Amino acid sequence: MTLRRRTTLSATTALTVALSAALTPAAVGHQNHSPSHGKDQTLRVATYNLSLNRATEGELQADLSTGDDAQAATVAEVIQRANPDIVLLNEFDFDAAGTAVDLFRENYLEVPQGGAEPVAYPYAFSAPSNTGIPSGFDLNNDGVVGGGDDAFGFGAFPGQYGMVALSKYPIVTDGVRTFQHFLWKDMPGALLPDDPATPEPADWFSDEELEVVRLSSKSHWDVPIQVGRKTVHVLASHPTPPTFDGPEDRNGRRNHDEIRFWADYVTPGKASRYIYDDDGGRGGLRGGDRFVILGDQNADPHDGDSYDGAIDQLLQHPRITDPLPASAGAVEAAALQGGANDAHTGDPAYDTADFADTAPGNLRVDYVLPSKHGLRVRDAGVFWPTQDDPLSALTGTYPFPSSDHRLVWVDLSV
């Protein structure tokens, strides 16, 4: 019997905590284990944009209500094969009751898929997303108020393209912080977009709009997880793609600053003092805190359309390790698909997403970035099998059976 309990952290945060029986998952390349309280242990942390978003509100719950959804079964098998202890799911539609999260666990993850062993995640966290929430303003300046471009984050309905954090280890519920309502203007030196048709600087948004425009296109979360006697802060986000705008580059600039938020948050002292959470708490992490930054950051260090240096704010941060997860499947895909990939300057081994061959080509956009303090990288990889591997059927080519993104994992000693 499984007991599931829901608790509300604040008026803006929905938390799902589930308690279930002991688990003994299996996965390729990952030793079976149950969470332990040893002095030094291996923790597999992953991020996966699994594209479990749907066109209408409630459609995802309907699709997951049985075990018959082919895409859900495929992405569940990818997770079972990788068997992470903690995984952030991007593009998973949010519902306040947590119904979709429970259905995905019960009907897919906890059921064998394609011969893989089931996996149980007793603990889950999900919270509201800015996507699809009307701003009441014409944020894209097209003369009309309404639609996804005028929401606080692009989306057809509130919660579309949301996030979920799943864990085999307990979530420290009292320590969770969310930053859904943090205003973009409140970041010192923010790269606010400029209307090139006017002489005034940074004037794409009116003064009234700046009082409501939020930094996070979805949200930013600090989810502390208790791993034995140690706490690991999971810093989760999914910045906007740096495209689908105009010469003002409002999405490219927002993507840069959404990434910068974590760079400032993990820098103790003055750099993070401006930050406030949805409950009014101030500042960022302390110098001795362990953390892992997770998510589809929508920025490649070499190629694509992101603002200059956007992801380098994390990759070159003195407190952060870049494990450089790689795969042979990404190298093969870049060579076979050609197109924009042929002009890329970055090493295709590190790509994590199979995008259009015309533009932007395959890119590295999904990241697992641990702190240098308290976490040692033991291994890392991207779930992108080569075509001669039977598991390549799980990733495939367009139209994808799972997602155009690949699961990225890192093994850490805690």
Overview of this protein structure:
The chain has 414 residues and is of the alpha+beta class. It has a single domain, classed as Endonuclease/exonuclease/phosphatase (Deoxyribonuclease I, Chain A, 4-Layer Sandwich), CATH 3.60.10. 15% of the residues lie in helices and 20% in strands. It has 7 helices and 13 strands. Strands 1-2-5-6-4-3-13-12 form an 8-stranded mixed sheet, covered by helices on one side. Strands 7-8-9-10-11 form a 5-stranded mixed sheet, with no helix packed on it. It is globular, with a radius of gyration of 20 Å. Residues 1-38 have low confidence and may be disordered.
- What is the CATH homologous superfamily assignment? Endonuclease/exonuclease/phosphatase
Q: How many helices in DSSP terms?
A: 7
**Residues in helix, %:** 10-25%
Strand order of the largest sheet: 1-2-5-6-4-3-13-12
Named at the architecture level, the CATH assignment is: 4-Layer Sandwich
Gap between N and C termini: 31 Å
Overall geometry: globular
Low-confidence runs of at least 5 consecutive residues: 1-38
Overall SS class: alpha+beta
**What is the quaternary state of this protein?**
single chain
Order of helices and strands: EEEHHEHEEEHEEHEHHEEE
CATH topology: Deoxyribonuclease I, Chain A
Q: What is the compact description of this entry?
A:
The protein is of the alpha+beta class and 414 residues long.
What topology does this entry show?
Blueprint: E1 3-10, E2 13-19, E3 42-52, H1 59-64, H2 70-82, E4 86-92, H3 99-109, E5 123-125, E6 163-167, E7 177-178, H4 207-210, E8 220-227, E9 230-237, H5 250-265, E10 290-296, H6 312-315, H7 328-337, E11 366-370, E12 376-382, E13 408-413
Parallel strand pairs: 3-4, 9-10
Antiparallel strand pairs: 1-2, 2-5, 3-13, 4-6, 5-6, 7-8, 8-9, 10-11, 12-13
